[in-house]
Specification:
7-stranded mixed beta sheet; Nucleoside Triphosphate Pyrophosphohydrolase; alpha+beta; 3 domains; single chain; two-stranded antiparallel ribbon; 9 helices
């Protein structure tokens, strides 16, 4: 027999229904409310119907959620009948919970943490306690989990630097000599590598990749190289914005990232001849960057490279390992720190 049940969640409590004392099977025991799946019904359609019939609440199909290990088979002792029970999480409904005496005698609001010690549950329903608690924990740490998995992009930055170093071992840039250092100082009009070429202030040795290591990959299919040919001294607070140009030319909005995009001759001339100080500053920044890129090319050096298929395979494997690490860590937290003490407050 196919049977469905509802894990009704409200304010961190599960609502259990006490079977009527006149019930043929398991009288007076508490259960997850639900019933038989009728012919032609899906399991979700069945639980929506059953809740309306038994408790007079309206549930939208989109508010019926599956969870891990939500199905089980067990025998009804009195008749020897085997039922396949599938539970669904439901935390949103309309209407007031109303008991029908021929079906249930009462309702119990049990805090999720106390399900383990709650007495008088149908034996076949108790196997779902741990999966329900696990679902509850995962829902409560959903935001933290999402952040943890998304931080793979941060680690990917260091993977890019590592892979870039491997690429450079095989295809090295020319040695960056003292003459090259002096030329960089001359082009960017700075006394040393610790001076921000935009503000003229101390950049504390912070440099920015002209061609970003990761940031331009989706647009260009290439990644920046981590060496002095591709680094320019910029104050930390500027290195997120100085390459993004926004201005109006002939009543047309222009937006370009000069790290990976060139200005047209018209755009460059407009900025340098503008009456707006900020636009002139953009023009000067672009001119210095342009002259440095031209010099780098003349020296036979490159600022970016295209990854091989093997590099991409390593990235895919890295992401899989990273996600598996978090899967394992979260599972350990739940098992060792939560279920070991039966305490999920």
């Amino acid at each position: 027999m196919q049977v469905v049940g509802a894990v009704l969640l409200k304010n961190n409590h599960v609502i259990l229904a006490q079977r009527s004392s006149t019930s043929k099977n398991f009288p007076n025991l508490f259960e997850f409310p639900g019933g038989k799946v009728e012919q032609g019904e899906t399991h979700k359609e069945a639980i929506v119907r059953e809740l309306k019939e038994e408790l007079e609440i309206i549930v939208n199909n989109n508010d019926v959620f599956e969870f891990e290990n939500n199905s089980s088979s067990h025998t009804i002792d009195q008749g020897g009948l085997i039922i396949d029970l599938t539970l669904f999480i439901i935390n949103k409904w309309s209407g007031e919970l109303t008991i029908k005496k021929n079906i249930h005698d009462s309702l119990a609001h049990v805090y999720i943490d106390n399900l383990n010690t709650f007495e008088n549950m149908i034996p076949g329903d108790t196997v779902f306690i741990k999966p329900i608690q696990k679902y509850f924990i995962n829902e409560n740490i959903r935001k933290e989990k999402k952040c943890a998995y998304s931080r793979c992009s941060d680690q990917n930055y260091y993977l890019s630097k590592l892979l870039g170093k491997v690429y450079q071992m095989k295809y090295p840039n020319p040695e960056f000599t003292k003459e090259d250092v002096l030329m960089k100082h001359k082009i960017f009009e700075i006394p040393n590598n610790n001076t921000c070429f935009i503000s003229g202030k101390d950049s504390s040795g912070v440099g920015d990749h002209i061609f970003e290591i990761n940031g331009y990959f989706k647009r260009t299919g290439k990644r920046g190289i981590n060496d002095q040919w591709n680094i320019v001294p910029v104050c930390g607070k500027l290195n997120k914005s100085y390459k993004i140009f926004k201005f109006n030319l002939n009543n047309i909005q222009v937006k370009k990232d000069i790290g990976c995009e060139d200005l047209t001759a018209e755009e460059s001339c407009y900025l340098l001849s503008s009456d707006d100080e900020k636009e002139v500053e953009m023009g000067i920044i672009y001119y210095k960057m342009y002259m440095w890129k031209k010099y780098v090319k003349s020296r036979g050096a490159v600022m970016m490279y295209e990854e091989t298929e093997n590099f991409q395979k390593i990235r895919t494997k890295f992401k899989k390992i990273y996600n598996t690490m978090w899967d394992t860590t979260i599972e350990t937290i739940i098992t060792d720190l939560v279920f070991s003490s039966h305490h999920i407050h």
